Amino acid sequence: AGSGAGADMRTEISTAAAFVTRLLRAAGGVGEEQLRCFRECLQEAMREHYRHHWFPLVPSKGSGYRCIRINHKMDPLIGKAAGMIGLSHERLFQLLPSELTLWVDPFEVSYRIGEDGSICVLYESPQPGVKAAKQLESRTSCKEEWRIGRSSPSKSYNMMTVSS
């Protein structure tokens, strides 16, 4: 598409739609053809919704507007795509996490499951014109967080067992 707002959000949108589709697939009971249709419908709904709310020069601008959220209420974009394949909101609540937040921003797509969960980055791309140092201090991925959180208790435990 042309330049300016919404010029290229394909990667971010397809990453986000693929993630929600994976969650549905993992829950089971939804056919592959339905999932493919759901994913396409969700991407289309997101493209439409974000069209004038995509600011690559100020990635955080409009972040709340682009945020996809399930929290005892179904996100309208997910609900719309699910409706196209005949999934009710009730069914969606059974298949998807009851609390899910998905941030779709230029250069970064991240999510959190549960209100207190860690924020995990699904997609990250260097922002043109931003110094590399800024990139390094961005959030650690879930895997890193998990590894850091896991390794410390076992080490101290090993030290205690050594002294006898």
TrEMBL record:
<dbReference type="Pfam" id="PF07742">
    <property type="entry name" value="BTG"/>
</dbReference>
<dbReference type="GO" id="GO:0005634">
    <property type="term" value="C:nucleus"/>
</dbReference>
<dbReference type="InterPro" id="IPR036054">
    <property type="entry name" value="BTG-like_sf"/>
</dbReference>
<dbReference type="InterPro" id="IPR033332">
    <property type="entry name" value="BTG"/>
</dbReference>
<protein>
    <submittedName>
        <fullName>BTG1 protein</fullName>
    </submittedName>
</protein>
<feature type="domain" description="Anti-proliferative protein">
    <location>
        <begin position="96"/>
        <end position="115"/>
    </location>
</feature>
<dbReference type="InterPro" id="IPR002087">
    <property type="entry name" value="Anti_prolifrtn"/>
</dbReference>
<comment type="similarity">
    <text>Belongs to the BTG family.</text>
</comment>
<dbReference type="GO" id="GO:0005737">
    <property type="term" value="C:cytoplasm"/>
</dbReference>
<dbReference type="GO" id="GO:0008285">
    <property type="term" value="P:negative regulation of cell population proliferation"/>
</dbReference>
